[in-house]
């Protein structure tokens, strides 16, 4: 049962949210694409930050959301299931209307403009080209400490599982972190993407950054016409030349 007294349809697959949603994400609603992959872990982390979450398996579930997470999994499978469930167009429309999107691992591939391999088809939400399985197959998975801009001096423990990297990025893309001289965390407008899995650690800072991106987008939408928009470096980030076209 939820705190409202109504049984959640997704209660078998996912945890109950906190009874009192407090924290930096209080008042926000974020969906997690729940077709395949580790969507449960994203929900746990976001709800721990006060965000109200839901699982997105159909276009109507996008209504009223402030943000959407596309989790790790298998990018070809995610694409096929988005097509089957009629979500490809609605997710593009959600982002075009100002909804923020956070893609992790396979989610980075999904939000990209394209892939080096030419497949699977992507959503084209971010001006990047991704290379799939860039660090090797499952047995080559690894963890490493990364410095991520705008997250302070303490490194982020990054979990790479059959991870992609950003092969190239447009001039408007902020490179937040690199590994072996390849971009592995990037942002453009309301789209955030990482090649690794921040939801598999207890470090919430990247999800908190996503919350700040949502808040900023909402502030821009409410600003008077003609007000200055700060799209690059607005979180203390600087665009990097690494991997850019």
List keywords for this structure.
3-stranded mixed sheet; 245 residues; 5 helices; disordered N terminus; alpha/beta; 12 strands
- Uncertain segments of ≥5 residues (pLDDT<50)? 1-12, 227-234, 236-245
Continuous helix count = 5
Give the fraction of residues assigned to helices.
10-25%
> Terminal Cα separation, in Å?
50 Å
Strand content: 15-25%
Radius of gyration: 17 Å
Main structural class: alpha/beta
Average residue-wise pLDDT: 86
SSE ordering = EHEEHHEHEEEEEEEEH
Strand order of the largest sheet: 2-1-3-4-12-11-10
The CATH level-2 architecture is identified as: 3-Layer(aba) Sandwich
The CATH topology annotation reads as Rossmann fold
